[in-house]
# Entry
Amino acid sequence: MDFALYLHAITGLLVIIDPIGSALIFNSLTAGSDQRHRNLMAIKSIIISGVTLVLFGNYGETLFSQLGININSLRISGGLLLFYTAFMMITQELKFSSSGKNADISVFPMSIPLLAGPGTLTLAILLYSQPPEAGSTMLSVTAAIVSVLLITMVGMVGSKYLKKIIGKTGDEILRRFLGVILAALAIQFIYEGVRNISM
# Structure
């Protein structure tokens, strides 16, 4: 496994998925549910998101290739999309309200758009498209996806306690800090795309 790529992937995914922020949103969406239902929703959300990210990350580039879209063009557009996501993270407040007791929130909004939204899917394609070294790209990126989603699931299951510890102010500070890191990552993708497309 390529540990440098693993660390690069896990950093980007941690920033854009934001396990703590996702867990706090999950807590607000399941406020009226019992712990068994909360656990079920957390597990379903993680499985759906994981499968979506791995499949789209591996085959999304092939799909774009069939449409005649160059991977460097995707890097540039994906970087712009990630930058927009970062801008929204920094400047706007994300709000979701509970949709009722024991409602199924695993697909929407937890999986899409929170965990496997456009920004995360774009990042997955870009990560899986890295030049393979001894066939380790898929293993490294998949391991990063699984690691981040497992961290997120732990946060969701214990979101009641997490809410008490971090509070709203702590979440606001963390989300804006992560937004700045994501913006830098987005600019890096744009730079690589422009550099490679002009070669």
In short: The mean pLDDT is 85. DSSP finds eight helices and no strands in the chain. Residues 3-197 form one domain.
